[in-house]
Each structure stands twice: as structure tokens, then as C-alpha cells.
Design a protein that fits this description.
This protein is α+β, with helices and mostly antiparallel strands. The protein contains four helices and eight strands; from the N terminus they run ββαβββαβαβαβ.
């Protein structure tokens, strides 16, 4: 299903979008792993330029992750990422997980995501326990500011 707003069309990705998706993910410097174009929803400008994307990834442990939310710099702060997130979550049963740097927690909270804090992590799906364990030493070595937040969505999207 394609959804339109002035000069922007939201649609499932096509094979021809693969290179543009990968280029956008590299440009915004987010996790480049697991970029399988059939899972993506894309935002395309009138001129055919891919200006935003996002996906729902399924992991071996059965968990599903909202991931790869990216918008070209010139198109930011126009609600494109929000529309991509709303469309991706519209047909997804909860729970849906995500990881992000702590500075992005307030952004994702507006969609009903809640940060999972503290504890021993046993409440986390196996994939997210692994990510938390692997990321901590990488973060310390690279001096990345903040921390990796793990969030979960259990309810309806607030519009």
C-alpha cells in the first residue's frame, strides 16, 4: 500500500532501491548489518529520489526489531521518519524492539516505545541480550558518548 503526502510517496522497497537504501544507511552512520531490501519501507520524493527508509527485522529468537530508520539530511524535521515508523508498526503485533543511542529515547517514546533499563537483562530476547553485551566494550574503546538504549513497544501507536 502506497501512502502519499505532498511530494512524498511511502511504499514497500523494490530491488531497484537496494543501493540507495545501503547508501543512506552508510550516510547516516547507523548499523549496516541486515539490510535486506524486501523488509524495507521507503519514502520517495517526486523526482524519484529515495529520501527515507526503515525496516522491521526478524531475529532467530523470534523477536522483531524496528531498525534502519533513516532520512536524508535535507529532508529531516518534516515528519518523514515518524510516518515511516507509523506505517511499519501499523500491521505489527507487539512486542517490537529497537536499539538506539540514549539521545534518541525521547524520539521513540512518542510512538509508545519504553526503555528497558537495569536488571540482568533476562527479560530481553536473546538477540538484544547479545547486542547489549557486545556493545558495552565497543563503546568504551571507541569513547562513544551516551549508551545504547533498548526499547520495546507493547501497545498501539499514539498519533
Amino acid at each position: 500500500m502506497a501512502v502519499a503526502q505532498p511530494s512524498i510517496v511511502y511504499r514497500p522497497a523494490q530491488a531497484s532501491d537496494e543501493a540507495a537504501i545501503k547508501a543512506l544507511i552508510r550516510a547516516v552512520n547507523i548499523n549496516p548489518m541486515g539490510l535486506k531490501w524486501p523488509r524495507f519501507l521507503v519514502a520517495v520524493a517526486e523526482n524519484g529520489e529515495l529520501i527515507g527508509c526503515g525496516q522491521i527485522k526478524s531475529h532467530r529468537d523470534g523477536s522483531r526489531e524496528l531498525a534502519s530508520i533513516a532520512v536524508q539530511r535535507a529532508w529531516r524535521r518534516q515528519g518523514i521518519a515518524a510516518e515511516i515508523i507509523h506505517l511499519l508498526l501499523a500491521d505489527e503485533p507487539p512486542p517490537v524492539w529497537l536499539t538506539c543511542m540514549d539521545s534518541l529515547v525521547p524520539f521513540y517514546q512518542q510512538f509508545g516505545f519504553v526503555e528497558v533499563k537495569g536488571g540482568d537483562g533476562r527479560s530481553l530476547p536473546l538477540y538484544f541480550r547479545f547486542i547489549r553485551t557486545v556493545f558495552k566494550p565497543i563503546q568504551k574503546l571507541s569513547r562513544i558518548p551516551g549508551y545504547l538504549a533498548i526499547m520495546v513497544w507493547h501497545n498501539e501507536i499514539g498519533h
